[in-house]
Design goal:
The complex is a heterodimer of chains A (380) and B (928). With 380 residues, chain A is mostly helical. Chain A contains eleven helices and five strands; from the N terminus they run H-E-H-H-H-H-H-E-E-E-E-H-H-H-H-H. Chain A has one domain. Chain A is extended and about 80 Å long. In chain B, helix 6 packs across helix 17 and helix 20 packs across helix 35. Chain B starts with a helix and ends with a helix. The chains are: A mainly alpha (380), B mainly alpha (928). Chains A and B meet through helix 3, helix 5, helix 8 and helix 11 of A and helix 2, helix 3, helix 6 and helix 35 of B.
Chain lengths: 380, 928
């Protein structure tokens, strides 16, 4: 049994031995494993990273823990995004109550516009990644979003307990005792193909390479599919990652632009800032059941009307985004179109570039001038 | 390259000890050479030939300003290259990481560019990009000033240190705590010397593994700081962005305003040169002007063949051609074109038209027993319009007549087949109303001729028929039964008439738009025009004068906002304090005066005294638009406003002269609007100034506002200097003090008129409106000449407005007979609320209310963002003192020094003891 972290002191040598045994056991049990690239796993991975980024990782990092690693630092990278958005929205909306009536309206308007912008930015940025990664995955068999659960064994940390006080007659130990901490494995949700230089090919089954080879036109029953697929894999990681990074920011820009069109602020004002639209009166002394019924009715009505209004607002703002505000001309009229087609163009180009390059590479590899497949070959 | 270098260095002192052919290995080679420990491989002399690695290329980067700046640009080039490599599939992980940053900037530029389309003024447009730049620089700046700067001060090393690795990639040393390239700390500089850092950290000098201890500490502190960076950025970066934006806006806005102002001037000068001063007779029409002219010509040409137009078509055309042409121009043009094209005697006859006639006949005839018999149907009217020809037998052999021939035949009243007639009516045909009327008469008469009138009393049927036919004729006469429709037909001559103004109209509209654009830069209703900017400045300046040091006290502004009586109370108290302090008072007057001068200079060029002459000139004219255009030679003064007036006049004249004399009568409305020329037959003395007149009002607004402020302050000053003098009683002063700062446009005149015409009132008026007599010396001394003049002018005007009724005694009593404002001018000046406002100036209390609001809002904003930022900043600085707490196993230098001191003390003690002992022993021995 591994000694508990909390305050329990153990003999260092004994602890070390026990720790070693335990480690060996755990290593047998826990290996990194590939997760299927479904929505559940991707959400789980996002949730795991985000939740830890706000709790465990900063707690470790602020202590300067030796086991605080680069993965945790990168995971914490989403804290500024979320906190920053919240700050932006919060400050403008919270500020509004301090201003005079006109200033309050202005501030509220800016705040609501900002809130819409931030939400649309995040939505567009996240969702648009699939526009690149899905087609690439279908065409080449390589899904750069493919998650895997990594298991990391931390450094065992041996710290000294407080040295015995010289006057303590009960304590017979002359040397300080040691405490061992941090022995549980750490889980990291990583992506298989995040790195082009060190792709985790050790984690995938050989069938994967056969599938990719076949999809990219290298043929079937290859002698060493892994070796032939590797350069293609590396290429796809580079091209698809670049494409999704660039285009997702452009889509995010479209999202902000969409939020700037139409009257989102009035939608937010009516349906999201707590104004109750339901018309069922709630009597103070009515029985609980009736009150609940009225409340639910109001909620349902609010939701229903809100959904219709959301659709309408979205429609008008999309129209204004694409066609320009009425009465405008030139750049003002067409800016939305330009932005939209730039984003769309970057997506189409990114996907086409990735797939065509992968295909071309396999064509080159299949070229008999490069490798004559009719002859036996041996991996060197 | 590195590999080949290594291969080149492969050589052996001994003979080749591996025989590749035989595979024998020389065993001697495997014996260990004598080793020299701790020798840097770079220091191994070349004489010792052995395989050795290339010297490392990695090195730490120093944080000097210029080298960082240089690296900033090279890094951006690296970023762009990374994207290229990413797309070609050859990027490494480091380069892939950089693509994210490029994406962020690209997306940011997309957002900023799009949002500019939602902004009207230049400043907010630029602010979108400034905001993006501020955001990007805040992201870079925050860790430097908020995290790693304080960390360096507390812990003695830069936790944000960057290095170039062997592949030339720029990386952060401590980013990955599991891989810190400590070997790059070679000790060349103090910041790269681990032992110096250990000194700073206070690690004992005789500690074993001292450098390792320091490295562990560094790693720990760096991890803590990187975490702090991530946790604080979310709050610090947005607030810092907002603060940077705000700060930059304050610097940028005046520059932009100045730039726009001078741009306006230079454009106006250029326009003036080409339009007025140019002696070049070869005049080339600019392309946009030609485009407008062609639009007009096309409109005439395309429709020339008797095409019928609707009123809506004409309005649409005019709106596309003459939009932004100033009020009334497009309406006048439309009116003239309609008049030219109108054909009151003709109508487009189609199904609807005939149906309506049938309906009208029925409505008129139905109620009458006898007339009723003459009601004709749709078909009967059509047949009367055009007789139907019986289908010929050999018609198939004939050539089919063209549509034009059929219409021609229809118009000539020839016989046509039923299908042909139906076709023509369906499409509609332009006919004389007279002909239609004749056809109706014929149809009705035919019907009546066939009707049976026998069943009546003894009167012969024929007689009745004749009476009924006469009755029907009376009803039908004068086109009474025809539908009322306006018919606009583009005949050949109408087309020529319209074309005759195309060239002149194109030039006028083009130039007018140019001129208006130039004016917008300076006097536009946008926040960054000179006009709006100086108003804002005046508001702030006046508020700061009355409520000084408001940055710290603006909290107390909230209850004042929109509470005018409290504002007046506090403002009175504050101004009373202000006027007691000569220095502050002089400063205040100077400040307001400077703004006034700045405005005048912007409009009247560098010599603001032009305003004096201008004012005199304008006084003699109608300030409401029409100005006697040849009453003054503009070039004598050459101010911007003069040039503007002259160009507007010139454009109007050019337009007038661009139209052939005999055609001018056709464009009465247009000429009246553009040239203020009543019947369009000659170019009169006055022209209408669309924008120039508005500018005149704007100048007056601002100048009067300044004058009223200075005058109000002056009243307070005089009240302080002459408490209840024999000339003026205290309560008069009090009333004046109250009125000058609080009278609104609604009650301004009422407040003065309400007083009876008593002697006191005279004194009261004298007190307020007699600047030359009573304006305080200090006030006068701090005003410019032009400013003093406008002040006099303003007061003269106000007096005249109040008393220039000849039946009233006040005006002559004051002895200002030379006041040049006449009755008509007075009526003009007071005709609208706008004019009254201009005459009396902006109410100072209103001014302060607005100023306090703005001050409160911006202070609130600053306090919130600034407070948030300072909070985060202090938090992260304080955090440094909790970071890097040393392990109890690390021996500290201060303990060592203490111990050393103790040891020394002990040694001294021991020595003393020893000496004492020896002495004692000696004494004992001696005693023994």
């Amino acid at each position: 049994m591994i000694p508990k972290v909390t305050g329990e002191t153990v003999n260092y040598a004994a602890g070390r031995k026990e720790h070693r045994n335990q480690m060996q056991q755990k290593k047998e049990n826990e290996e990194p494993k590939v997760l299927s690239s479904n929505i559940k796993n991707r959400m789980m991975s996002g949730f795991h990273r985000t939740a830890n980024a706000f709790t465990e990782y900063p707690a470790k990092g602020l202590k300067g823990d030796i086991n605080s690693n680069f993965y945790e630092f990168l995971a914490m990278g989403r804290v500024p995004y979320l906190l920053g958005s919240a700050t932006f929205i919060g400050v403008f909306n919270a500020a509004s109550q301090f201003f005079d009536s006109r200033g309050m309206q202005q501030s509220k308007k800016i705040g609501l516009k900002l809130a819409a912008g931030v939400i649309f930015y995040a939505l567009a940025k996240t969702l648009s990644k699939d526009l690149i990664t899905r087609p690439v995955s279908w065409a080449t068999g390589i899904d750069i979003e493919q998650p895997y659960l990594n298991v990391v064994y931390p450094f065992p940390k041996v710290i000294l307990s407080e040295p015995p006080k010289p006057n303590d007659k009960n304590n017979n130990n002359e040397t300080p005792t040691r405490i061992i901490q941090d022995l549980d494995p750490q889980y990291q949700y990583q992506k298989l193909w995040e790195s082009g230089e060190f792709p985790r090919i050790d984690l995938v089954k050989p069938e994967f390479f056969d599938k990719v080879a076949k999809k990219n036109g290298l043929g079937e029953n290859l002698n060493s599919a892994e070796n032939e697929v590797k350069p293609i894999l590396k290429n796809v990681i580079s091209t698809a990652t670049t494409a999704s990074r660039v285009s997702s920011f452009l889509w995010a820009a479209c999202g902000v632009a969409l939020a700037a069109c139409g009257n989102w602020d009035s939608y937010y004002d009516t349906y999201l800032s707590g104004t109750k639209l339901g018309k069922n009166p709630i009597k103070k002394d009515a029985p609980f059941k009736d009150k609940m019924k009225a409340r639910l009715g109001n909620f349902w009505q609010h939701t229903k009307e809100g959904t219709i209004a959301l659709k309408e607002t979205f429609k008008t703002s999309a129209k204004e985004f694409y066609n320009g505000a009425p009465g405008t001309k030139g750049f003002k009229k067409h800016a939305g179109k330009v932005l939209f087609f730039t984003a769309l163009g970057s997506t189409v180009f990114g996907v086409a570039n990735t797939i065509i390059r992968a295909r071309n590479m396999s064509k080159n590899l299949c070229d008999p001038d490069v490798i004559d497949r009719s002859k036996d070959s041996m991996a060197v | 390259m590195a590999v080949s270098k290594i291969q080149n260095q492969v050589s052996f002192t001994q003979k080749p000890n591996i025989d590749t052919n035989s595979g024998n290995v020389n065993m001697e080679r495997l014996l260990p050479l004598p080793r020299k420990h701790y020798l840097n491989h770079n220091e191994i002399p070349d004489s010792v030939n052995r395989i050795r690695p290339e010297p490392g290329q990695g090195h730490l980067l120093n944080g000097g300003f210029f080298s960082s700046l240089g690296r900033f640009f090279s890094n951006r080039i690296y970023d762009i290259k990374s994207v290229y490599k990413g797309y070609t599939g050859t990027a490494n992980d480091h380069q892939l990481g950089r693509t994210n940053d490029v994406g962020l900037v690209l997306g940011g530029l997309g957002i900023a560019s799009f949002l500019t389309t939602k902004r009207i003024a230049t400043m907010p447009k630029h602010m979108e990009f400034i905001g993006l730049a501020s955001f990007l620089s805040s992201m870079a700046l925050w860790p430097k000033i908020g995290i790693f700067g304080p960390a360096r001060a507390v812990h003695g090393f830069d936790a944000d240190k960057r290095y170039i690795d062997d592949q030339g990639r720029n990386k952060s040393v401590f980013q990955d705590p599991n891989y810190v390239p400590f070997e790059l700390f070679r000790g060349d500089k103090k910041s790269e010397d681990i032992s110096a850092i250990a000194d700073y950290m206070g690690i004992s000098k005789d500690a074993p593994n001292r450098n390792e201890m320091a490295k562990d500490q560094m790693r720990k502190v760096a991890t803590q700081n990187h975490t702090l960076w991530m946790l604080t950025s979310g709050v610090a970066v947005p607030t810092l962005t907002a603060l940077l934006c705000n700060g930059f806006e304050r610097i940028y806005e005046p520059l932009l305003v100045k730039y726009k102002n001078s741009l306006s001037d230079s454009k106006l000068n250029k326009m003036y040169e080409t339009l007025i001063n140019s002696t070049d007779k070869k005049h080339t029409t600019p392309k946009p002007a030609k485009k407008i002219a062609n639009q007009i010509r096309n409109f005439a040409t395309v429709n020339r063949s008797e095409k019928v137009l609707t009123g809506e078509q004409i309005t649409n055309f005019v709106n596309t051609v003459a939009k932004d042409a100033g009020s009334g121009v497009s309406a006048a043009l439309a009116k003239d074109i309609r008049a030219i094209l109108a054909q009151p005697d003709k109508a487009v006859v189609d199904n609807k038209y005939i149906e309506e006639i049938a309906k009208n006949i029925e409505a008129k005839f139905q109620g009458h027993n006898l007339l009723k018999k003459g009601i004709v149907s749709f078909d009967e009217i059509v047949r009367a319009l055009c007789p139907i020809k019986a289908p010929e037998k050999n018609a198939a052999n004939d050539k089919k007549p063209s549509a034009d021939d059929i219409i021609k035949a229809f118009k000539e009243g020839k016989e046509l087949t039923k299908d042909q007639v139906d076709d023509v009516i369906k499409k509609g045909v332009l006919l004389d109303k007279e002909r239609v009327n004749k056809a109706i008469t014929k149809a009705v008469n035919d019907k009546l001729a066939a009707a049976d009138f026998t069943n009546t009393n003894n009167i012969p049927a024929e007689k009745i028929r004749q009476r009924v036919i006469d009755m029907a004729g009376n009803v039908i006469r004068n086109n009474a039964l025809l539908p009322k429709s306006e018919t606009y037909v583009m005949t050949e001559s109408a087309a020529n008439n319209i074309k005759s103004i195309a060239g002149a109209m194109g030039e006028y509209l083009y130039n007018f738009r140019q001129l208006r654009g130039i004016n917008e830069l300076k006097m536009g209703n946008v926040a960054d025009s000179m006009d709006a900017y100086l108003w804002k400045k005046l508001e702030t300046a006046f508020t700061n004068i009355v409520y000084p040091n408001n940055v710290f006290t603006s909290k107390s502004f909230k209850p004042l906002i929109d509470n005018t009586s409290d504002i007046e109370k506090t403002a009175q108290a504050n101004i009373e304090k202000l006027v007691k302090d000569d220095e502050r008072y002089a400063k205040a007057i100077k400040k307001i005066d400077a703004l006034k001068t700045e405005y005048l200079k912007a409009v009247f060029g560098n010599d603001e005294r032009q305003y004096i002459q201008y004012n005199e000139f304008i006084k003699g004219n109608n300030a409401h638009g029409g100005v006697n255009w040849n009453a003054r030679t503009y070039s004598d003064y050459g101010t911007q406003i003069d040039k503007y007036l002259e160009i507007e006049t010139k454009l109007a004249r050019n337009f007038y002269e661009g139209i052939e004399g005999n055609k001018r009568g056709l464009f009465n409305n247009l000429l009246t609007t553009i040239t203020n020329n009543q019947n369009g037959n000659n170019f009169g003395k006055t022209v209408t100034f669309h924008d120039a007149a508005a500018n005149v009002k704007k100048v007056e607004n601002f100048v009067t506002a300044c004058d009223r402020i200075i005058h109000s302050l002056d009243i307070y000053r005089r009240a302080y200097l002459n408490p209840a003098s024999k000339h003026v009683e205290q309560d008069l002063f009090n009333e004046a003090k109250h009125n000058v700062i609080s009278a609104q446009s609604n009650d301004f005149f009422a407040r003065f008129n309400n007083r009876s015409k008593s002697v006191k009132f005279r004194q009261y008026m004298d007190l307020i409106f007699a600047p030359n007599k009573y304006l305080d010396d200090l006030t006068k001394a701090n005003m410019s000449e032009a400013s003093r003049y406008t002040m006099d002018g303003w007061i003269d005007k106000l007096r005249a407005l109040l008393f220039n009724d000849k039946k009233n005694w006040q005006y002559s009593e004051f002895g200002h007979n030379n006041c040049p404002i006449g009755d008509t001018y007075k009526d003009n000046l007071l005709s609208t609320p706008d004019a009254r406002y201009r005459a009396q100036g902006k109410n100072p209390v209103e001014f302060l209310n607005q100023g306090l609001k703005n001050s409160y809002n911006s202070n609130k904003w600053l306090r919130m963002f600034g407070g948030l930022f300072i909070g985060v900043f202090s938090l992260s600085v304080i955090a440094q003192f909790f970071f890097g707490k040393k392990d109890s196993t690390i021996p500290l230098e201060k303990d060592r020094l203490k111990q050393e001191k103790l040891n020394q003390q002990n040694a001294i003690d021991n020595q003393i003891n020893q000496e004492l002992n020896e002495e004692l022993e000696g004494e004992a021995a001696h005693a023994n």
